[in-house]
Automatic annotation (TrEMBL):
Pfam families per UniProt: DNA_mis_repair (PF01119), HATPase_c_3 (PF13589), MutL_C (PF08676)
Biological process annotations from GO: mismatch repair
Any GO CC annotation of this UniProt entry: mismatch repair complex
Name the record gives this protein: DNA mismatch repair protein MutL
All copies of domain MutL C-terminal dimerisation, residue ranges: 414-557
Domain called DNA mismatch repair protein S5: residue spans: 206-324
Function: This protein is involved in the repair of mismatches in DNA. It is required for dam-dependent methyl-directed DNA mismatch repair. May act as a 'molecular matchmaker', a protein that promotes the formation of a stable complex between two or more DNA-binding proteins in an ATP-dependent manner without itself being part of a final effector complex.
One MF term in the entry's GO annotations: ATP hydrolysis activity
Amino acid sequence: MSIRRLPEKLVNRIAAGEVVERPAAALKELVENAIDAGSTRISVRIAEGGISRIEVEDDGCGITAADMALALERHATSKLPTDAIEDVITMGFRGEALPSIASVARLTLESRVAGGDGWKRVVDNGVVAAEGPAALANGTRVMVEDLFARVPARRKFLRSPRSEYAACLDVVKRLAMARPDIGFTVEHDGRRVLDVQGGQDQLTRVAALTQRDLAANSIGIDIDRADVHLGGVISLPTYNRGIADHQYLFVNGRPVKDRLLVGALRGAYADLLARDRHPVVALFLDVPTSEVDVNVHPAKTEVRFRDPQLIRGMIVGGLRRALDEHGFRSVQRPAEAALAAWQQEPVAPPPPTLFAHSQSPPAPMFGAVDAGTTALLHDRIVDFAPPRDALPMGRAEPATMPVPGAEAHPLGIARGQIAKTYIVAEAEDGLVIVDQHAAHERLVLEQLRRGMGGQAVPSQGLLLPEVVELDEPACDRLEAAAPQLAALGVELERFGPAAVMVRATPAMLGAIDCHKLVTDIADDLAGYDAALGLNERLELVAATMACHGSVRAGRTLSVAEMNALLRTMEVTPHSGQCNHGRPTWVKLAMDDVEKLFGRK
Ligand code: ADP
Ligand code: MG
C-alpha cells in the first residue's frame, strides 16, 4: 500500500471533528476571533440553538480582501508573532477554526478594515461559492449556516436545539466573563438573552452573568504565590447547586474546563458539601506563560501546568483558608421566594360561618351573647382546632437575658424552640433560626476532625463497658483502627474472636446507641476498604459518627443547652453549613422582619 497525502478537504473535515463538534464549539471559535481582533462590542445571533445559523459580528480590526482567502486556509494565522507557541496571549493561534468550520457548513465571511472597502467570501462545505464586495461597518461578520448538513453522521449527534442553545449561551458567558472590557450581546431566535456593557471590572461582570444573589453569598479570593495569582469569587458552601455548570474557571484569561482545577476545587470544599452538590465559582488564575501549556487540547479548554502540585496546593489551601475565615457564615438572607411566602401566608380570618347562623349582628365577644351563639362559637372553635398531635410545638422561656452584641454573638440569645427542632434566637440585628440537628452534627464533625489532627476528642466512659458482637473481619478492622478511633473518642478493644468491647464514646455525642455506632463504624471501615487509605476512611467514619449525636431533631433543649450550642457554633469553623452543605442557621434581618409587617 502506498502512502499518500490526504486531500485538503478531508484534512479539514477531520480537524473539524475535533474543533467543531457542535454549534457551541464553532461559536466559541468565532467569538474568540472577534476578541483577538481587538473588538469593543461583539454581537452574537443564533437560530435553532446554532444548528441552522450562527452569526458573530464585531467592530475589530477586520480582514483585508487580500488576506481573506488566507484566513480560510488551514494553519494560516496572524497570531504567532514569534515562533514560541508558549508565548501566545491571543485566544486563537492554531489557524484551523475558520477552514474547519467552512468544511462542514456554509460560511460567509464579510469584513472591512478601517479606511478600506468591505469584502466577502462564501465557502460552502469546503468549496468557494461566492466572492465580492460587501457593505458593512468596520469589523467582521461571520455567518455559519446549516452546520453538518452534509455530514449526516455528525448531525445525528447534535442534541435538541434547546440544549445546543444552552451550550452556546454558556460559551459566550464564559468568554464575556474573561473579558469584562468588551460589550457582548446574544440573541437567540430573535430574542435578546444576554447584554453586558463593555468597560466593566471583573467582579461586576461576574455578578452580571451569574445569579443575582451570588454576590451576597460568596467570598472574594485574592491570593498570590510565587508568580501565580488567583482571584475571583467562590460561593459559601451553603450556596450550592446540583450540577457543576456554574463553575467558571479561567487560566490567563482563557476559559478552561481543566480537570486539575476542577479536582482542586472539589478538594477545597471536600467535607463542606455533599458529594452531589457543587459550589458556584468564578476563578481567574494567572500564571507566567512559561508555566503553562495551553496547546494540549484542540478546543483549548484544557491546559497543562509545569508544576501542577503548586497550583493544586494553592487552590485547595487558599480556598480552604478563605472558607475557614467565613466558615461561620451561612446564607445570610432568606431567598426572595421564601420571604414572599412569609408575606403571603395570611392570618386566617375568623371563619365567616361563625356568625352566619346568628340572626343578630355579631355581638362583642365579651358582651352579652345568647347561649345559642356561645355554644355555636364553642363548637366551631373545637371544629377548627387542628388534631391534637399536630398542634404547633412552640415553647418559650422568659426572655430575661439581654441580647448580646451582633459583632461577637451574631447568633444572639436563645428565646425558644419550635417543633423540637429549631432554635429561635434573638440577635441584635435580626431573628435567627437554627436547625439544631444539622448544627450539632456539624459541630461534632469539626471536633472529630480536630481529633484526627491530633487534638484528642474528649471521650466519656461508659458506666458499663458494652460488648458488641460483629463478624470476625469487622472486628479485625475495628481492632486495627483502634488507636485512630481512640483519638476520635471511641475506645474499644477486641473481645474474643467475634466481638469488641466498647469502653468510651465521644462526650459530645451524648448518650447514644453504642451498638449502632460501632456497627456503622465497622461498615464504613469495610465499605471503602480497598479504595481509600485509612485516613480517608476515618473521615467517613467521622461523618457517620456525627450523625449519631443525641441532639437530634425532636429533642427538647433547655435554654442553657440552646445557648451553649449557639456559642459553640460561633467559634467553630464551618458551622454555617451542615455536613451536606445545607445551612445550619438563617437570619431574618430586622429590616426584613419590619418589611413583613409593612413598617418599611
Ligand atoms: P486563529 O484564530 O487560530 O488564528 P482562525 O482560523 O480562527 O485561526 O482564523 C484565521 C485568521 O483569520 C486569524 O488569524 C485572523 O487573522 C483572521 N480572523 C478571523 N476572524 C477574524 C475577525 N473576527 N476579525 C479579524 N480577523 C479575523
Ligand atoms: Mg481563531
